[in-house]
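Researcher: We are triaging several targets before committing to wet-lab work. For this one, the compound of interest is adenosine-5'-triphosphate. I'm pasting the protein sequence and the ligand SMILES. What I need is the predicted three-dimensional arrangement of the protein with the ligand bound, expressed as structure tokens, so it can go straight into our comparison scripts without reformatting.
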Amino acid sequence: MMIPAATPQETVEKSKTIDLAARKQPEKKAVVYDTKDFNLWYGETHALQNINLSIHEKEVTAIIGPSGCGKSTYIKSLNRMVELTPSVRTSGVISYQGKNILDKSFKAEELRTKVGMVFQKPNPFPKSIYENVAYGPKIHGIRNKKILDEIVEQSLRRAYIWDEVKDRLKENAYGLSGGQQQRLCIARCLAIEPEVILMDEPTSALDPKSTLRIEELAQELKKEYSIIMVTHNMQQAARISDQTAFFLNGEVVECNRTNHVFSNPDDSRTEDYISGRFG
Ligand SMILES: Nc1ncnc2c1ncn2[C@@H]1O[C@H](COP(=O)(O)OP(=O)(O)OP(=O)(O)O)[C@@H](O)[C@H]1O
């Protein structure tokens, strides 16, 4: 039997279907952290109010907002560091990989092996470059020198500092420049094989060249890790993040794809802040 040739209309319809199938939606990334109705008080100060925020894996999420709006408090809540302040009280839920980390049964130590943190000021230990990176794996029970050597080299390579330090691994980390110290701190963080890296203004103490290197590094690292970065630098947030959350007076005013936040924000307060009208 002869199969009738497709009519021109049918051909158009068919090619439309193929076109739509080929033009796949961008892959939706899994949620790593899901924050629901989260509140935090320092004594009487209600520092975070009804925070609702999802953070996706293998993306850079930028947290922006004026001084005192709660950015650091929020990222320190994500690894429960904030609870080191005795007056802190919280309500709501922060789920990490589906488990509520605020639940009393959830062990903070478990979280700290999965979530690394890099601070505003590079804070290497007063030890050799090697020992700074080997410290975390040693705490986790790795004693074999060959394995430790491999972890140290791999971590320093991934933080793009290996070539600069490979011949001085036994020297004190304090002898490195600020930018090198910050990359060393990132290597120290990578050595524990985290899933998430929290960065609290990681470039604010660095010169423009070192800042650029950290930004490039964050772009590279997001292929393997989820990164949450507090920054005061709008260009930096626009350059390197996939999602941006704008905090103001302890609330999230807007959280959206970075392109959207910077080109067409939903809230006029976001627009005022990113265009430098306040903050
Ligand atoms: N340990 C603390 N005890 C009491 N209040 C605190 C403490 N830490 C922060 N706060 C208050 O909580 C609010 C949020 O502070 P936080 O440091 O999170 O803001 P931020 O947005 O990170 O500010 P910055 O950009 O200046 O670092 C501020 O009002 C601050 O004074």
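Researcher: Any quick observations?
Model: The chain has eleven helices and ten strands.
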